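ok so i was messing around last nite and threw this chain in just to see what happens. nothing serious, just curious
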Amino acid sequence: MIVRLGIVLIVISWVVYGLIFIMAWIVNDWYLRVTIGGLLYLLSHLVFWLGMLMLGKEFFKQPMSRSLLKWLKSKFFKEKPMDE
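result:
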């Protein structure tokens, strides 16, 4: 449960980070753009590192040759023996 929440938090941090670029076309005032952009940047980092803390050492020490997709499959989609 905590691992899934950690992954969700990391994805949310990516979305919040992406909002910085979208917000540039929505807000007209330069001062407001910089303020909101800075706050979104800090929020995205905070949420990202909270997610990384929930994922733990196993995720940090993952070898570079192993992809995130393979790690997620091994965590959530364990192979079940097929009935013959």
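not much to say yet. The first helix runs from residue 2 to 26.
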